[in-house]
Amino acid sequence: MAEQTSGDPLFQSHDPIFNRKELLHVGHVPDEDRIVGRDDEIQSVAAEVGAITRGDPPNNVMIYGKTGTGKSLISRHVATRAQNAARSNEIDCAVLYVDCSEANTETRATRQLALRLKEQTEYQQNIPLRGVGTMEYYQHIWRILEDCFDAVIVILDEIDKLDNSNILMQLSRAREAQKTDTYIGVIGISNKVQYRETLDERIDSSFGHRELFFHPYDASQLREIMRNREDAFQPDVLEDGTIELCAALAAKKHGDARKAIEILKEAGELARRTGSETVSEAHIQQAQEVAEINRIEELTSGATVHAKLALYALASRIITGSRETYKTREIYERYVGICELVANDPITENGLYRQLKEQAFLGVIESEKTGGGRSQGSYLLHRLVTDPKHIVKAVRRDSSLEELPTYDQLRDTTPSTTNRDLELDSFS
Ligand SMILES: Nc1ncnc2c1ncn2[C@@H]1O[C@H](COP(=O)(O)OP(=O)(O)OP(=O)(O)O)[C@@H](O)[C@H]1O
Ligand SMILES: [Mg+2]
């Protein structure tokens, strides 16, 4: 064993590639001077919650934007700065962060808030982990806030994952309802536009809030973000042009900083695994491929069976057809045939359309309106943002869908005639 360990480059005392690898970890919160290209966003968030630092009531704010645009990072960053600024004005300000993709019910979210508050204070009362309802957790929250804090910033990240929005109302009405005098500012974060559309129906006017939109990063911002973490690598390990290539690839896809950083890290891992002394453009290209498969798997693993079948239907049309884009109707026809293959009852065409829309927002597909005027002849064309091969692979990972034809099988069934776009026999 000892021999193996010393022979494994992974366990060398000196890492030939990475110097401070933690800078590239997903959960890493960079220092202020490593945050790039979000000055306006930082200012905007600060403008909404900043009143707290002067002892005034803050605004609630909802932040929307695609994945990897710095929403979580900037929110935490501004909240922490506000807390420090408040402290220097002798205002006791708490910052509470809840990841609603984990704490996805009101009970879980309020329990987490109560426990976090207790951690930060001398609060003596026991807060039960189970067996009590939301109301009891609220009681603890109000009591701790009332006793210990002048203000609190509550960050509800991935707020669309919460099963209901009552917590927003409770937090925004707390003062009015005389539960506590503490000023409460909520920062809600979501990468779902659909959430925004339904938010007004979910909440009443008590949750008055501003909206901010974070845009994807462009290549030069991504370059800057990565340059600022270059010291994650040993000196001279990154070959010239690698960061530029990585930024260009990530910008072309989605302007997602997380992906850009992940590709850089994966490229480093690849270099190390293959015993290379430097990270080259080829490593970046290869890492991008791996990252793309991971991304698709991540995105589709949480999707419903019908969303997966819809994606598979589109992928299979692209593989067997001669076009890159297909109408909802065309995808639906293929989808119905595929449902038969896996003995699944198809949903309606409109249902499928909604699934496609969701996937478009996630960034797996792109949908574009084409054709005639508003009333007539206009239709949506959908395309895959990724290689159809990845989709087929990811969808077939679902154990209930592994019977579906593989990429090679689909490709081999492609008629070599000019009628490549005709339905496959087995599908319709
Ligand atoms: N402006 C920036 N400067 C430096 N690093 C950044 C910047 N924006 C994002 N990052 C890094 O990119 C990663 C993703 O950012 P973040 O988690 O804030 O994205 P997000 O918008 O919350 O995405 P999601 O919707 O998927 O949660 C983080 O690791 C973060 O450190
Ligand atoms: Mg986030």
Please tell me about this protein's structure:
- The chain is an alpha/beta fold.
- The protein folds into 3 domains: 38-214, P-loop containing nucleotide triphosphate hydrolases (Rossmann fold, 3-Layer(aba) Sandwich); 218-299, Helicase, Ruva Protein, domain 3, CATH 1.10.8.60; 303-427, Arc Repressor Mutant, subunit A, CATH 1.10.10.
- It is 47% helix and 12% strand.
- It has helices spanning 2-7, 39-49, 71-88, 106-119, 134-148, 166-173, 193-202, 219-227, 242-253, 257-273, 281-301, 305-320, 328-341, 349-362, 388-396, 407-412; strands at residues 60-65, 93-99, 151-157, 183-190, 209-214, 325-327, 365-371, 378-384.
- The strands form 2 sheets. A 5-stranded parallel sheet has the order 2-3-4-1-5, sandwiched between helices. Strands 6-8-7 form a 3-stranded antiparallel sheet.
- The longest helix is centred in the C-terminal third of the chain and has 21 residues, at 281-301.
- The chain is globular.
- The model is unreliable at 1-5 and 416-428 (pLDDT under 50).
- Adenosine-5'-triphosphate is lined by residues 26, 28, 30, 34-38, 65, 67-73, 191, 225, 257-258, 261.
- ATP binds at residues 69-73, 217, 229.
- Residues 311-395 form the Cdc6 C-terminal domain.
- It holds the Pfam family AAA_16.
- This is ORC1-type DNA replication protein.
- InterPro entries: AAA+_ATPase, AAA_16, Cdc6_C, Cdc6_lid, ORC1/CDC6, Orc1/Cdc6_arc, P-loop_NTPase, WH-like_DNA-bd_sf.
